[in-house]
């Protein structure tokens, strides 16, 4: 697998040309401001100590405090965290929120930990980085396999160590702990606003739009459910164990019920929890692998899992008319070129999945002002941000004859560059 940060640098170079970026600023933007590597001793339930490795990359804070999630995954690496923090810088600037770019991660498979072990790991991570974070410095949030409960432990640990209350030190908290209405579904909701704008730009209004979603976690789950409610036809859904394809459409609510009952998504066609060999591999309703789902002939393909999914090797087989990136970094720069040559429109991650960090920013703002906004207010503000950014990027793309990613990066880098002081 190619190094992810290499992808960032090539995206940076491409956008730098469009805006004729100052070479000194370009040089600065090739590196993060600071990277922390920490080793976290955790007392496991059997009494033994296990040491986990964690990172926090603070990429750039020219536009505001470093901002970005913390990922718990066995494949977390320094390269990945650096790349993700770079994309957070671009993402925040793309939608125009007053935040910089950061990201954290711990090398762990959270499914192997008990609830108590998970809590001790989360508190242990904060014990190692608390001096470097705060609502005016660096504001973590959930990412892959982290959630509101973990954010509540982190806020609490930070406040114990620092000795003062700072609800805005992390976002994505439970409502009772200073969280915002609409935060949990915000990434999916932001994607849905983008899909609606995309339909208008493609001239697809009134048409039945087919969608395939790879990933059924917080992001993929909400985007599938919201698009389904809006009248899009979800024909395929998958998670890390593969998924389901149904010609007549997949109801993500039903799929979720099966998953919650302990079944695989492929059991959808049978309507209840089943074993792997009961799942049909052909027919109108069938099992689909994570590779196959990317190659379906649909209107919109939605990668909503992990990075590096669409690469030079499989991009030539992608048949979707458009791709909406709900994961971070699902398309490599080589694949981008292939998709562009095939005439496939890519709504890039830094726009499509920016709804999460946008509502995180709203949460931070509410915490700083000691306010609590209604869901209606939050959604109205989110819709404004997403549709505004979509329109700006589309205009930039038309003006410079580039793809949407290059347009978004050019817009974002210009904003960061103007704020950098050295
Ligand atoms: N982890 C999310 C992302 O990749 C949200 C980050 C945040 O809310 O700070 O955009």
CATH topology of the largest domain: Rossmann fold
- The quaternary organization reads as single chain
Net shape: globular
CATH fourth-tier homologous superfamily of the largest domain: NAD(P)-binding Rossmann-like Domain
Distance between the termini: 35 Å
Helix content: 40-55%
**What is the number of beta strands?**
12
SSE order: HHEEEHEHEHHEHEEHEEEHEHHHH
In the sheet with the most strands, the strands line up as: 9-8-7-6-10-11-12
Strand count, sense and barrel status of the largest sheet are:
7 strands, mixed
CATH architecture of the largest domain: 3-Layer(aba) Sandwich
CATH top level class name of the largest domain: Alpha Beta
Radius of gyration: 21 Å
Q: Mean of residue pLDDT?
A: 97
Number of domains: 2
Structural class: alpha/beta
Report strand %. Answer: 15-25%
List the ligand species.
Answer: glutamic acid
Structure characterization notes:
By secondary structure, the chain is of the alpha/beta class. The chain folds into 2 domains: 33-166, Leucine Dehydrogenase, chain A, domain 1 (Rossmann fold, 3-Layer(aba) Sandwich); 186-352, 3-Layer(aba) Sandwich (Rossmann fold), CATH 3.40.50. 42% of the residues lie in helices and 17% in strands. It contains 13 helices and 12 strands. The chain has a 7-stranded mixed β-sheet, sandwiched between helices. A 5-stranded mixed β-sheet has the order 1-2-4-3-5. Strand 6, helix 7 and strand 7 form a beta-alpha-beta unit. Glutamic acid binds at residues 67-69, 141, 143, 171-172, 328, 353, 356-357, 360.
């Amino acid at each position: 697998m190619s190094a992810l940060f290499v992808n960032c640098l090539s995206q940076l170079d491409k956008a730098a040309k469009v805006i004729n970026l100052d070479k000194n600023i370009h040089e600065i933007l090739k590196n993060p401001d600071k990277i922390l590597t920490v080793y976290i001793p955790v007392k496991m339930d059997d009494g033994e100590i296990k040491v986990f490795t964690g990172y926090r990359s603070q990429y750039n804070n020219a536009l505001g405090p470093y901002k970005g999630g913390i990922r718990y995954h066995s494949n977390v690496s320094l390269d990945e965290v650096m790349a993700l923090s770079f994309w957070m810088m671009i993402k925040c600037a793309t939608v125009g929120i007053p935040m910089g770019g950061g990201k954290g991660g711990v090398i762990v498979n959270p499914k192997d930990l008990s609830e108590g072990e998970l809590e001790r790991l989360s508190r242990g991570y904060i014990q190692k980085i608390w001096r470097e974070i705060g609502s005016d410095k660096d504001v973590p949030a959930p990412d892959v396999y982290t959630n509101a409960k973990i954010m509540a432990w982190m806020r609490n640990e930070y406040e114990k160590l620092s000795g003062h209350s700072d609800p805005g030190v992390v976002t994505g908290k439970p409502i009772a702990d200073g969280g915002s209405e609409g935060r949990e579904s915000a990434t999916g909701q932001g994607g849905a606003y983008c899909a609606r704008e995309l339909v208008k730009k493609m001239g697809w209004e009134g048409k039945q739009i087919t969608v395939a979603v790879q990933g059924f976690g917080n992001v993929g789950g909400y985007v599938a459910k919201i698009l389904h409610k809006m009248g899009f036809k979800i024909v395929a859904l998958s998670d890390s164990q593969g998924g389901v394809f149904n010609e007549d459409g997949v109801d993500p609510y039903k799929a979720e019920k099966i998953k919650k009952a302990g079944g695989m998504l492929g059991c959808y066609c049978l309507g209840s929890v089943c074993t792997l060999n009961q799942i049909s591999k052909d027919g109108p309703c069938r099992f689909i692998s994570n590779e196959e789902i990317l190659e379906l002939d649909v209107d919109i393909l939605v990668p909503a899992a992990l990075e590096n999914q669409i690469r030079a090797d499989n991009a030539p087989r992608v048949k979707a008319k458009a791709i909406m990136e709900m994961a971070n970094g699902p398309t490599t720069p080589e694949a981008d070129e292939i998709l562009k040559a095939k005439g496939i429109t890519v709504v890039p991650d830094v726009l499509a999945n920016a709804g999460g960090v946008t509502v995180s920013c709203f949460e931070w703002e509410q915490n700083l002002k000691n306010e609590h906004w209604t869901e209606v207010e939050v959604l109205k503000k989110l819709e404004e941000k997403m549709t505004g950014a979509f329109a700006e990027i589309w205009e930039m793309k038309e003006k410079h004859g580039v793809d949407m990613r290059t347009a978004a990066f050019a817009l974002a880098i210009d904003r960061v560059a103007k704020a950098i002081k050295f």
